[in-house]
Amino acid sequence: MNRRLLGLLLMFALVLSLAWWVNELQRPEIKRPEIARDTPDTYAVNLLVKQYDDDGQLLQILRTPRMTHYEKRGITELSQPVVQRFRSDQPPWRMWGENGLADHRQETLFLPGQVIIERDGKAEFAPYRIETEDLTIHAEASYAETAEAVRINSGVDWLSAIGMQIWFDEPSRLKLLGQVRGHYEFE
After folding, report:
1. Which of 6, 31, 79, 136 is the most buried (most CB within 10 A)?
2. pLDDT value at position 104?
3. Are 71 and 87 in contact (CB under 8 A)?
4. Are 155 and 174 in contact (CB under 8 A)?
5. 170 and 163 in contact (C-beta within 8 Å)?
6. Which residues have CB under 8 Å from 6's CB, separation 6+?
7. CB of 160 within 8 A of CB of 180?
8. Is residue 76 within 8 Å of residue 95, measured between CB atoms?
9. How far apart are CA 102 and CA 47, in angstroms?
10. Predicted local distance difference test score (pLDDT) of residue 35
11. Which residues of the chain have pLDDT under 70?
């Protein structure tokens, strides 16, 4: 009787296995959609990029300890980027922030959070230190802008405003957009 019971159990297990196998063969294959992963396609550490004009004059330097490019989004993330903008007749402008986001479709570099812009003094050029937030740099147009609060220091003189536009190429100019206040000491 034990043999008969054991044989029945084996036969039952064989029938169940066969039924499962046939069911798997008849089930339509479900295609799972690919998960859209936002993985970087390129990265670099200690990146230094120099840009020159048609005459071979240095226009701009970008430095960053880490760059990560995402092709699907068309953006590049930068950590602690420093941008230097050069002109032959005056000291260079330096701009830096904690992070940066380069958008290749719009040819912009966005520096979220606190941003510092500096230019050393030289002969007829006063030194400047500009503190602001959320700066967008348009490198090809040699232009930057923000809608946030701005403080400009030059020696003991200062200006503050809400919003700023700055053009680095000739003629260099700075436009403060609203709520402008200032302090200037005469000699």
Report:
1. 136
2. 78
3. no
4. no
5. no
6. none
7. yes
8. no
9. 14
10. 43
11. 1, 5-6, 8, 22-37, 187
**The pLDDT of residue 27:** 60
Collapsing DSSP to helix, strand or coil, 88 comes out as: coil
First to last CA, the chain: 118
Instruction: Please state, as a whole number, how many other Cβ atoms lie within 10 Å of the Cβ of residue 146.
Output: 22
Phi/psi of residue 124, nearest 5 degrees: -85, 5
The predicted structure's pLDDT at residue 150: 95
Distance CA 135, CA 118 (A): 14
Res 29: pLDDT: 58
Question: Token pair of 115, please?
Answer: 């941003």
- The Cα 84–Cα 95 span in angstroms is 6
E-strand ranges in 80-141 read 82-87, 90-97, 99-103, 108-119, 128-138
The answer to whether the CB of 163 falls within 8 A of the CB of 178 is yes
- CA 137 to chain centroid: 11
pLDDT at 186: 77
pTM: 0.73
- The 10 Å CB-count burial string (b at 16+, else e) for 154-179 is eeeeebbbebbebbbeeeeebebeee
Residue among 120, 59, 126 at smallest CA distance from 94: 120
